[in-house]
Structures are given as structure tokens and as C-alpha cells.
Specification:
Layout lengths: L1 H30 L3 H8 L3 H9 L6 H10 L5 H7 L15 H25 L2 E16 L5 E13 L16
Antiparallel strand pairs: 1-2
Helix pairs in contact: 2-3
Family: Belongs to the cyanase family.
EC number: 4.2.1.104
Enzyme class: lyase
Length: about 170
């Protein structure tokens, strides 16, 4: 019985998020603004502006007032709900979209090289996906073609030796 209750709440939450996302995207469309323009109004990257509207990022109080000004058609209840901690998940069907599939493919094909270069330049560690700026833009190629540029600017997080004396909360041992 409890499981059905949890599943029901998650389904209701998913539907509520989808409805809110539709309202937010409709307000953006009505404004005629691009994600680049919205990002400029908010002082964020274009990707973060999109994440806000899609429910993938938390709206801060400082940015909420800017968003209300940039998209005056927004409802105050939607703005309040955007200030709660989001459920940062994704629809697995997103990878059926050619853009998403190709991005995943590009990262997967280059992941080992990227890892080796990060390790060579920074040491043993990883790039944070939490403390990361993501921006998307275009440039002109050598033959005048449009080229897509995806910039991931992430904080380097070194792996540490797990020394017992540094563990401020050791696990209980019997």
C-alpha cells in the first residue's frame, strides 16, 4: 500500500512539473526571447536559463525577480515552486532525440581521452558536474558553415587518500 502511495505522489509530481514547464515555456515564447536573451536578463548561462524553465535547477530569490521582469507572464505560484529543490532526473527517452544521442555519443567516444588529459593536466580526480558552467553557442567554420560549441567548465575535484585519522565520522566497527 505504501509503495502505491509513493508511486502516486511521484506521478502527480511529474505531471505538475510537466504542466509548470509548459506554462514557463509558453511565457518564454510569448516574450519572443531566446535562451541567450533570457540568460542575459538573468545573468546566467543560456543552459542554466533553460534548466530553470525545465525544472532542472533551483531558482534563487535574486534570480526570481529578474525572471519575473524578463517574463512578466509568469505566475507567482510557479516562481515559488521553482525555488524548491528540484528532482534532477531526466527522461530516458531524451536519448532518442538525435541531438541528445549525438552529444552522448561524442562524450562516450572521447571519454577515455578526456579522462587521460584531465589526469595528465590536473592529477587524479574528476570534473564536477555540480560545480560546472555549461554554455552552448555557435561559430562560423572555415568554409562559412555554422558549428556548434558546447563548453563545459567544471571544477576539478581531486581524489584523496582516505586516511583513518582524517575520517571525522568513522563507520562503526564491531
Amino acid at each position: 500500500m505504501l509503495r502505491a502511495s509513493v508511486v502516486g505522489r511521484r506521478a502527480a509530481s511529474t505531471l505538475a512539473l510537466a504542466a509548470r514547464t509548459e506554462r514557463l515555456l509558453a511565457a518564454k515564447a510569448a516574450s519572443g526571447k531566446s535562451f541567450d536573451q533570457l540568460a542575459s536578463d538573468l545573468g546566467t548561462t543560456n543552459t542554466y536559463a533553460a534548466q530553470l524553465l525545465l525544472g532542472q535547477a533551483k531558482l534563487t530569490d535574486a534570480t526570481a525577480s529578474k525572471l519575473k521582469e524578463a517574463l512578466p507572464g509568469l505566475d507567482d505560484a510557479d516562481l515559488r515552486s521553482m525555488g524548491t529543490c528540484p528532482d534532477r532526473s531526466y527522461d530516458p527517452f531524451v536519448f532518442q532525440d538525435p541531438v541528445a544521442y549525438r552529444l552522448k555519443e561524442a562524450v562516450c567516444h572521447n571519454a577515455r581521452s578526456i579522462k587521460m588529459i584531465i589526469n595528465e593536466q590536473c592529477g587524479d580526480g574528476i570534473m564536477s558536474a555540480i560545480d560546472m558552467y555549461l554554455d552552448v553557442g555557435t561559430v562560423k567554420g572555415r568554409q562559412g558553415e555554422r558549428r556548434v560549441v558546447v563548453t563545459m567548465n567544471g571544477k576539478f575535484l581531486p581524489f584523496v587518500e582516505q586516511r583513518a585519522e582524517d575520517n571525522s565520522c568513522p563507520a562503526p566497527h564491531e
